[in-house]
Every structure is written in structure tokens, then in C-alpha cells.
Design brief:
The protein is mostly beta strands. It has no helices and 12 strands. It starts with a strand and ends with a strand.
């Protein structure tokens, strides 16, 4: 419910997306638009914003309301505005 997905976003298999998540480009006028790639097994919690030509690694977790504008490595947790990588697990 209320999920926004830009036209060139890549979302791979077994991704869990909660409500009010946005996937999009940077939105800057005159620049080439770049969209995120979401790898297998990612969990993205409510209200997160995933912006730009970044990659969210396999099995990563994106916390609620996080604003993600950097790559998130596989098996890591990202939280905050702007996001910070706080944990590696697995």
C-alpha cells in the first residue's frame, strides 16, 4: 500500500517491502536518472526511501523511515536519515 517504484528500478527475488516505501532517482533536473537495484532477500521496512543508482546487497535490511542514498553491502543493516550502516550479520 502506497509503494512508489520508479520505472527502471530492479527488484530481484524474495524481497519484502512494507508500506510507504519509495524507490526512485535523484530527481535533479538535467541529469541522467539513475535507479536502485535491490538484490535477493532484502527486507525494506515502512517509510524507507531508496534513492539513486545504488545497490542494496543480498539479504540487507533497511530500517523504517531510512533515507538510503549509498550502497548497502550484503548482510548489513542500514538505518537513519541519511542512512548509516550499523551492523553486519550472517
Amino acid at each position: 500500500m502506497g509503494i512508489v517504484i520508479g520505472d527502471k528500478v530492479i527488484i530481484k527475488d524474495n524481497v519484502m517491502i512494507f508500506q510507504q516505501v519509495t524507490f526512485g532517482s535523484h530527481g535533479k533536473k538535467g541529469l541522467i536518472k539513475n535507479y536502485p537495484t535491490i538484490e535477493d532477500g532484502v527486507k525494506i521496512y515502512a517509510g524507507a526511501k531508496i534513492i539513486g543508482g545504488i545497490t542494496i546487497g543480498k539479504n540487507a535490511i533497511i530500517g523504517a523511515n531510512a533515507v538510503v542514498n549509498i550502497d548497502v553491502p550484503a548482510d548489513c543493516v542500514a538505518v537513519g536519515i541519511p542512512c548509516k550502516i550499523i551492523q553486519k550479520f550472517g
